[in-house]
Write a structure and sequence with these properties.
Blueprint lengths: L1 H9 L6 H21 L3 H15 L1 H13 L1 H21 L4 E7 L2 H11 L10 E7 L2 H14 L1 E2 L5 E2 L12 E6 L5 E8 H9 L16 H7 L1 H12 L3 H12 L3 E5 L5 E5 L4 H8 L1 H5 L1 E6 L2 E3 L11 E5 L16 H33 L4 H7 L1 H9 L4 H10 L4 H8 L2 H6 L6 H4 L2 H6 L10 E3 L7 E2 L12 E6 L3 E6 L13 E2 L1 E3 L7 E10 L4 H11 L3 E9 L4 E10 L2 H12 L4 E7 L2
Parallel strand pairs: 2-6, 13-15
Antiparallel strand pairs: 1-2, 3-5, 4-5, 5-6, 7-8, 9-10, 9-11, 12-17, 14-15, 14-16, 18-20, 18-21, 19-20
Helix pairs in contact: 1-3, 2-3, 2-11, 3-4, 5-7, 11-14, 12-14, 14-17
Length: 588
């Protein structure tokens, strides 16, 4: 799939612009991080740069042009650094291959964006690599580099002693090189370099014990692939699966210890709950507290490198659904959601059975008698349910109504004789009673399949606009809640609550959306942005601007747009303004 996507990206130029952007965004969101997670660095970098080219074409061209203009000066500096490194290593009898290169364009773009700096520092985009024969020589080379140039505090990382989950190993350091310019240096062996470039693909043919690879080593290399299989078992819904995988694709790792001294790697910001679920699902479910370095801490506590973590458990405890809001690992989120959905499913099954039994009783029919007659089994296919439990759960959730099912479930004589008289409230379906409690009804420019006059709720998390791919969920007290399909909050809902929703093309309603603009802090720039919104017919409802210490501006606009086309159009207009570095849509 990665090779196929790389080929598609290389030939993207022949497609329409909207299709180019859609494929490039999907590549940047999924395929490039996936290649990184599997350790296949050369595919990752090319996918990122190609995505950059089609998603932000003007920014891409501007950055590429600026780098091209400084090529001769940069190459001279690279040769100067390589010469100094080779001389130092040779003088201490260390055989090494030394190379230098600029970082790839997407990496430079992200660095400029996070630092808020202009592209005025030529050399901090350079990366150097030292490849030696033995692990011991990696550390010898590191000492020589630090004796040659002053190291930058806090920038040393030892991925040899503590490898990444994708098996990546190297020493990383940053130093103030010639002319006091900051440069980054990686030091590794040839085997480590092979793994860094090819990732798990470098080890696919290894068997237990072959080439010195033990079963424990194999388990470490393929642990994440095994985790993917486990997620596929736990998450039957493809959208849930992909969103959960995305959580783990963007992980900067911290390393903590079990009380027995085993090392565990987690995404930065991980909590004791993540730790508990990494050890065992039952430990996560029954987790009630934690000690970190001997001190009791909150379950929301952020773990740090070197922490020793001990989990406190109470037999029979259940996970809190709110945990999913702060855990950082896909495994923990998956296990919590699976447990909560199982509990909800059981409750809805019970409610659905009670609703059906109550209605059948009015016709003088018992549920068990109906089962024995075979009418339920015979009606399931027509009613589009796989089994009786699924039907009862749908009733409990409010996705199906008892009165809709009765014509297929009851014998003709029972239907024709009619039910016993009951108060009007009792004749209402569970779903209609639910709808009485919701917000005032309004179309909101959306149709809900199979339901009419349903209240709609638009949460702040993803701010869908006409043209976005959307999905709806039946929610108690709010009717149907509308989310963008790529909203992370979609994972919080049971798939059984999902209903198909579509934008109503016959009506147009403006929807609020937030846009963030990164720019230089120069006079008149805000006025130019406001004029672009005006020219595009977009109304601004709120503005929030702040300036960073290095005189960069971050401008947040809340605007009202008719649809996705208008949103994309105004974002492109603002991106063309001189002084604007990037524009993005914000999901709160």
């Amino acid at each position: 799939k990665l090779a196929d996507r790389l080929h598609n990206m290389r030939t993207l130029t022949h497609l329409r612009e909207d299709k180019q952007r859609r494929i490039a965004k999907e590549t940047l969101d999924i395929y490039a991080p996936l290649a990184n997670r599997l350790g296949i660095n050369w595919i990752k970098t090319e996918l990122e740069d190609l995505s950059f080219k089609y998603l932000y074409p003007e920014e891409y061209r501007a950055l590429a042009d600026r780098i091209a203009k400084t090529r001769s000066e940069r190459e001279a500096y690279i040769q100067r650094v390589i010469g100094a490194l080779r001389g130092e290593l040779t003088g201490h009898a260390i055989k090494a291959e030394v190379t230098g290169r600029p970082k790839h364009l997407w990496s430079i773009r992200q660095k400029l964006k996070t630092s808020g700096r202009e592209f005025d520092h030529l050399f901090d985009i350079l990366a150097f690599r030292i490849i030696v024969d033995r692990v011991a020589e990696c550390y010898e080379a590191l000492g020589l580099v630090h004796s040659l140039w002053k190291p930058v505090p806090g920038r040393f990382k030892d991925y040899i002693a503590l490898p990444k989950d994708n098996s990546y190993q190297s020493l990383h350091t940053a130093v103030l090189g010639p002319e006091a310019e900051r440069i980054e240096i990686q030091i590794r062996t040839l085997d480590m370099h092979r793994t860094a470039e090819l990732g798990v693909a470098a080890h696919w043919a290894y068997k237990e014990g072959q080439y010195g690879l033990t079963s424990k080593g194999a388990d470490h290399r393929f642990a994440w692939l095994k985790q993917l299989l486990e997620w596929q078992r736990d998450l039957t819904d493809p959208t849930d699966f992909m969103e959960t995988v995305k959580v783990d694709l963007f992980a900067n790792e911290v390393y903590v210890f079990t009380p027995e001294g085993d090392v565990r790697a987690f995404p930065r910001g991980a909590t004791p709950v993540d730790f508990a679920y990494a050890i065992h699902t039952d430990l996560g479910h029954e987790c009630t507290g934690a000690r970190v370095n001997g001190t009791q801490v909150s379950l929301r506590h952020n773990l740090q490198n070197g922490d020793v973590v001990e989990i406190l458990r109470t037999k029979g405890s259940k996970p809190n659904p709110d945990w999913v809001k702060f855990v950082k690992t896909g495994r923990a989120a998956t296990k919590i959601r699976a447990f909560v959905r199982q509990e909800e499913n059981a409750r809805s099954h019970q409610i659905g059975q009670e609703l059906l039994e109550k209605e059948l009783k009015r016709y003088g029919v018992g549920l068990n008698k109906l089962r024995r007659s075979g009418r339920i089994e015979a009606a399931l296919e027509k009613l589009k349910f796989n089994n009786e439990r699924e039907m009862l759960v749908a009733l409990g959730y409010g996705k199906a109504q008892v009165q809709q099912l009765l014509p297929d479930l009851l014998p003709e004589d029972k239907l024709s004789s009619g039910p016993k008289e009951v108060p009007p409230e009792a004749r209402e379906s569970a779903f209609k009673r639910l709808m009485k409690k919701v917000l005032p009804k309004g179309k909101g420019g959306i149709t809900v399949d199979g339901l009419e006059g349903v209240a709609l709720h638009f949460p702040n998390c993803c701010a869908p606009v006409n043209g976005d791919e959307i999905v709806g969920f039946v929610t108690r007290g709010r009717g149907v809640t509308i989310h963008r399909k790529d909203c992370p909050r979609v994972l919080d809902y049971d798939p059984a609550r999902r209903v198909d929703v579509h934008w109503d093309t016959s009506t147009r309603q403006v929807r609020p959306v937030e846009i963030r603009v990164f720019s230089a802090d120069t006079p008149g720039l805000l006025a130019s942005m406001s004029q672009s919104f005006h020219n595009a017919g977009v109304n601004i409802t709120a503005v929030n601007c702040k300036t960073t210490p290095d005189r960069r501006a971050v401008n947040n606009f809340t605007v009202l747009v008719n649809d996705l086309d208008q949103l994309n159009r105004v974002m492109r207009m603002i991106e063309r303004i001189e002084g604007v570095s990037s524009v993005e849509r914000v999901a709160s």
